[in-house]
Write a structure and sequence with these properties.
The chain is mainly beta and 152 residues long. The strands form three sheets. A six-stranded mixed sheet has the order 4-2-3-10-12-11. A hairpin with a 2-residue loop joins strand 5 and strand 6. The N and C termini lie far apart (33 Å).
Length: 152
């Protein structure tokens, strides 16, 4: 059974077999986080691809949250200050986690426990706050936070 779609401001990626919805305000580093994780995962010899950057269509299908890209922006990602570039994409993915890039110097030191992102389709995703602009790569931080869910 498929629920009506909603379109949200976010970025969706797949790393291995895990789908991530990267959320946050404009300029928070969603696209840069996605591109960094995709590139680093591929360098490690694993599958990674963009689903959608900036706008993501969400649906609920067979009790799973599915992310797709609007046709007008398929295969494109923004490098802030550098322009729009083409990258490898997949047409859809099942979303497992939501990620919010955070800057440690500006955000709280520890995140709330068991935080969830409420989606407009009436479901939630577990939310991870992942530091950016630190000495730890976004992928290494994500792997440390999800060692059992992200085999890299």
């Amino acid at each position: 059974m498929t629920a009506p779609a909603c379109n949200i401001h976010a970025t969706a990626i797949v790393l291995g077999t895990t789908g991530f919805l990267i959320t946050g305000p404009s300029g928070s580093g969603k696209s840069a986080f996605a591109l960094s994780c995709i590139s680093e995962t591929k360098r490690r010899g694993r599958f990674a691809a963009l689903v959608a950057d900036d706008r993501v269509d969400l649906t609920l299908e067979n009790d799973r949250i599915i992310a797709r890209c609007p046709a007008s922006i398929r295969g494109l990602i923004e490098i802030r200050g550098g322009g729009i570039v083409a990258v490898e994409t997949v047409s859809a993915c099942v979303l497992d986690w939501a990620i919010m890039p955070v800057r440690p110097s500006r955000d709280q030191r520890l995140p709330p426990e068991n935080e969830e992102l409420q989606l407009q389709i009436g479901r939630t995703l577990p939310l991870l706050r992942v530091p950016v602009e630190t000495l730890v790569s976004p992928l290494d931080a994500l792997h440390a936070l999800l060692p059992k869910n992200l085999a890299l």
